[in-house]
Amino acid sequence: MDPSRLRALLEAVEGGRASVDEAMRELRELPFRALEFAHVDTHRHLRTGFPEVVLGEGKTAEQIAAILVELAKGGSTALATRVSPAAAATVVAAVPGARHLPVPRAVVVGPVPPPDRGRGVIAVVSAGTADVPVAEEAALTAELGGNRVERLYDVGVAGLHRLVARKTVIETAEIVIVVAGMEGALPSVVGGLFARPVIAVPTSVGYGASLGGVAALLSMLNSCAAGVAVVNIDNGFGAGQMAAMLNRKRET
Fold first, then answer.
1. 3-state class percentages of the chain: helix first, strand second, coil last, to nearest 5
2. Averaged pLDDT for residues 41-61
3. Facing residues of 125 across strands?
4. CA distance 211 to 209
């Protein structure tokens, strides 16, 4: 359930605008809803500040749709990642308000929240155009967490003048997500040039010796630049979620 919706419900009970029984009906399916194939975590937004996210890989389109419907009932914007175009077409047809974003391979139900939860801007930087789908997954996740996001794509180490030309974007960001495949050198460069924490995302982009992203992963883990943390290969969602949590304003 969306925290603002829960607060409004409790305030309505306190103010006499809603009965205890009405509130109980609203809350009866917390903390999860049991489906035949899943236990949908309707309580996660209250615990962590971000609703449960559906991993589309390994699920049928019908399963993805059913979970998104349950998550959307609580008033939160719902997200499914790694959704194939064929599955997305079925999901969008079945779930009211769902939309397919083909580049990050995501399906979103509900509006993008206002960017007022973060202290500052999250910059998402990609080494090459081929890394953009992973970068967009990170950017979308951060935006759905209520953050302002600046995108800076195709500025890899093969032409560092492209990065330097846009240095203001990074210098003014609170956190920088750097997405790179091949040899995975860009996070070290950004971490060495700018006084900003870097979340590095290795991608599976590259030729044979890149080993499906393992080369980039090991390069980032062995970075000589301080302040570089690394998530798993192609894990744009994990990077976006981590950046959103680190950037979150202190709640009072």
1. 45, 20, 35
2. 79
3. 152, 178
4. 5
